[in-house]
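BUG: 3D viewer hangs when loading the predicted structure for this chain

Environment: internal workstation, default settings.
Expected: structure renders.
Actual: progress bar stalls at 90%.

Input used:
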Amino acid sequence: MKLALVLRPFSEENLAVAKQMGVTDIVTTLPTEGRSGRVWPYEAIVRNKQRIADAGLEWSVVESVPISDNVKLGKEGRDAEIDDYCQTILNLGAAGVSIMCWNWMAVFGWMRTSFTTRTRGNALSSSYDHKLMENAPLTEHGEVSQDQLWETLEYFLKKVIPVAEEAKVRQGIHPDDPPLSPIRGISRIVNSIENYDRILSLYPSEYHGVTFCQGNFTAMGADIPSALKHFGKDRIPFAHFRDLHGKVPTFAESFHDDGDTDMAQALKAYMDIGFEGPIRPDHTPTFAIDENETGGYNILGRLFAVGYMRGLIDGLNSEA
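Structure tokens produced before the viewer hung:
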């Protein structure tokens, strides 16, 4: 497996820090100044990829190209937007960026009810408590059914995955975060292993797979080694390494060495299935001397997480 990192802010200094950590791969989007309309220009992709390569790293994962609610809810204009999305896939493939992480969360993306929950040593963490959302008003979209999302997802996959095959860009669909349904009347469908099996069956392809976000599979109540074995390395192009206290409907994110999951056994399971893709630490609590303005992407938390991951990997390799 390849240790990867999201950088916020995306800067020369942070690229150097990533290299110093021993990270090899970068997970990022295209900088805003490089975009023009909905299609990511090939030249801007190449320049961003080369900027990362010049720092001694590889841009291996895009996370993520926006997919609008027009597409997810099946509204007018979705075909033109899907065509633009497909052109971006072709441009990424031509530039040699081989993995895309995307999601099917309509109306709002990942959600937390607090970013100041205390965890070990009073570090600030994010948490979700569904009781705080049960009486929340509907959004302007009203109620969105699971059937609607299944229909629009199948429509999307049948247009997009053939293009991903042509471009040789593997697609990994991220779990809903939190993985429960509905929230404020908006259903969610990427929230169980059974639903993932259905999603993968909608368009079977080696280019249609799973972003294995460990925290969300933990929140679903899944056993991580069993879930990794269930999908296997061929269906997991990319992974997020994080942990929690609790599971839906109430959970809080933890330091990587302080959650409910046996993280050593989790990493061993990646090795056991032969996973060779990029894996990055995801949301981390905020240390007292760091800033709490990056939604779990502070630099000290990720430095701690990468060191912990490297230690676990070295230990497992020594045992092997």
